[in-house]
Design a protein that fits this description.
Layout: H1 2-24, E1 29-35, H2 54-61, E2 64-70, H3 76-85, H4 119-125, E3 129-135, E4 159-163, H5 181-206, H6 214-236, H7 238-242, E5 245-247, E6 250-253, H8 261-275, E7 281-286, H9 307-329, E8 336-342, E9 351-352, E10 356-357, H10 375-378, E11 379-385, E12 394-396, E13 400-401, H11 405-412, H12 428-432, E14 442-447, E15 450-456, E16 465-472, E17 495-505, H13 524-540, H14 552-555, E18 566-567, E19 570-571
Parallel strand pairs: 1-7, 1-8, 2-12, 2-13, 3-4, 3-7
Antiparallel strand pairs: 2-11, 4-5, 5-6, 8-11, 9-10, 14-15, 15-16, 16-17, 18-19
Helix pairs in contact: 5-6, 8-9
Length: about 575
């Protein structure tokens, strides 16, 4: 007995040490912050000296800054789908083949398929409490208003508060519309023509000039009423249908009160962190800034040197700072990975008479939002802060992707369960400096579901070759953007197919201003061959992809799918923010 007691006394410190060690290896908290439409040139640590972003700059100085961080698409819906799933959006059907490239109505049936897997779902399975505060823009329902098959709660988020759609011009009176303005104009003209024609025939019949059948007038009246209904009900009431706030699966505000939205979102994000401070959590703070029509918060009005857009960037930076303070004040800094990025580049064409320039600046990079493979639409800020784990002030200039977050978070959550093939790679070896080479030898750049470009980072070279198979046709000719249509399209007569493809070396020419040829690039033929073969292999890997979620059939408004606060069609409520 004495020997047993002595053994226990000797072993107890070792066992206690092992238990303490296991408890100390806590899975890290994850805070992901994503801006909307922010240009890489809008941030101080990426070269801007006219807009103040001290809080984002501080994250970079205390962590790792990526200088070649790439979005998988130059538009919201496909970029965010790829970010959430770690795979190109075309695999999940979230990349349109025609004029429609994003979700247009909350009352449509398209969205991130229920069978898709998000990083939130994977971390939820590993014991994380998961929350999304802010923008979703990946659909809500499939067949009826209550199924919520595309909703964040069905894709791994325990908690959701924010915009199931996005922030757009329709949400602010006097700012016009952002949704299919050309289609709205055509429907409105049709309504006017039918009404004028009906009025003329009624006058002719009343004067007895021509004997017109009463049934013809009834048919024309019915068509006129139908035309007005088809135009006005879905489009004229867009603020009520799309500009709403949800908390989990309930609509809490319809239409939204824009003036108080930023602070409400920040408060919900802070409360989520406070509620879950003693257990591993994932928070995705998906900002509505700096998407047009921009916010008009009095505290930030006129503060910047870049007008209303600059004011919005500085307010966004403040939101990032307040969220970081919450993490640090709770003593969670060393246990929390904070990530900051934008979903894609700035919208160069976006402007409005009331606020002048409403889109961002993409620095030295050519192009912007919705411009296919041009660098300005896909190169975004990428910052990771994790004190004690990641070296402060480190810069990584290797190609990385928003799709890399999925496998990185899986690794940090110690998720070793089988998964489907991914297009992203675990970033931790690059961030920690155990490797100095990206796993992305090839990356592919989509415009909708059309493959526009590919980049190749040869293993034996510092060069990063970009091959453009197609590029958008800018309008008016000579412009750098589609100012006539406000957004570039990806197909048909809207693009130029290059034979041979355009070739640039981003290592030597990041602004894509000097195309290479056989006389200026010794590896010219090899690069084109490598890119073509990689694109072929990539296309073959798309077998079994999900059906297209962005067809007209799926994205057009359906009354029975419309989220509603109250009784449809009399939807309306205001959130109690006391």
């Amino acid at each position: 007995m004495r020997l047993i007691l002595l053994a226990r006394l000797l072993l107890f410190p070792m066992l206690a040490s092992n238990v303490a060690g296991e408890e100390s290896i806590r899975k890290p908290n994850i805070v992901l912050v994503m801006a909307d439409d922010l240009g890489i040139g809008d941030v101080g640590c990426y070269g801007n000296n006219t807009i103040r972003t001290p809080n984002i700059d501080r994250l970079a100085s205390e962590g790792v800054k990526l200088t070649q961080h790439i979005a998988a698409a130059p538009l919201c819906t496909p970029s965010r789908a790829a970010f959430m799933t770690g795979r190109y959006a075309v695999r999940s059907g979230m990349a349109g083949s025609g004029a429609v490239q994003v979700i247009l109505f909350l009352g449509g049936s398209g969205g991130l398929p229920p069978g898709e897997t998000t990083f939130a779902k994977r971390l939820q399975q590993q014991g994380y409490t998961t929350g999304l505060v802010g923008k979703w823009h990946l659909g809500v329902s499939c067949e009826h208003t209550g199924d919520h098959c595309h909703h964040p709660n069905q894709h791994g988020f325990n908690f959701f508060y924010g915009l199931p759609f996005t922030f757009l011009n329709d949400c602010v009176p006097g700012m016009g519309t952002s949704v299919q303005a050309g289609l709205q104009h055509a429907l409105r003209n049709m309504s006017v023509l039918l009404a004028v024609g009906l009025f003329t025939l009624v006058c002719v019949r009343a004067r007895g000039l021509v004997d017109i059948s009463l049934w013809l007038l009834v048919v024309l009246l019915s068509l006129s009423v139908l035309a007005v209904a088809v135009w006005y009900i879905p489009f004229g009431l867009l603020p009520r249908w799309n500009c709403i706030v949800m908390k989990d699966q309930s609509v809490v505000e319809q239409p939204m009160t824009v003036e108080t939205l930023p602070v409400r979102m920040l408060t919900e994000a802070q409360r989520f962190i406070e509620r879950n401070a003693h257990r591993p959590f994932l928070l995705f703070f998906s900002l509505a800034h700096v998407h047009a029509p921009l916010f008009r918060t009095a505290a930030f009005a006129g503060r910047s040197r870049q007008g209303r857009y600059g004011d919005d960037v500085e307010e966004m930076d403040w939101l990032v700072g307040e969220l970081t303070k919450t993490v640090d004040s709770l003593g969670l800094a060393n246990d929390t990975l904070i990530y900051f990025a934008s979903d894609h580049g700035g919208h160069l064409e976006d402007s409005h008479p009331l606020i002048d320039q409403a889109g961002g600046w993409n620095g030295i990079y050519r192009g912007g939002k919705a411009m296919g493979g041009w660098e300005g639409g896909i190169r975004v800020p990428g910052i990771f802060r994790w004190p004690g784990r990641l070296a402060a002030g480190k810069v990584v200039s290797e190609p990385t992707s928003l799709m890399d977050l999925y496998p990185t978070l899986k690794y940090l959550a110690r998720d070793t369960q089988p998964d489907r093939p991914l297009d992203g790679h675990n970033l931790m070896p690059l961030l920690e400096g155990t490797v100095d080479r990206s796993e992305h030898e090839f990356m592919f750049h989509y415009c909708g579901s059309h493959l526009h470009a590919a980049r190749w980072h040869p293993a034996d070279s510092d060069s990063i070759f970009k091959v453009h198979f197609s590029t958008p046709n800018f309008s008016p000719p000579g412009a750098v953007g589609c100012y006539d249509t406000q957004i570039c399209l990806c197909h048909g007569d809207h693009v130029t197919h290059h034979d041979p493809p355009l070739l640039y070396d981003l290592f030597q020419d990041p602004s894509e201003s000097r195309p290479l040829g056989p006389d200026t690039e010794p590896r010219y033929a090899e690069v084109l061959r490598q890119a073509a073969e990689a694109a072929y292999r990539h296309r073959r890997s798309l077998a079994g992809k999900q059906p297209d979620q962005l067809t007209w059939e799926k994205i057009l408004w359906r009354p029975w799918l419309q989220p509603c606060c109250g009784t449809f069609p009399f939807c309306g409520c205001k959130e109690d923010t006391r």
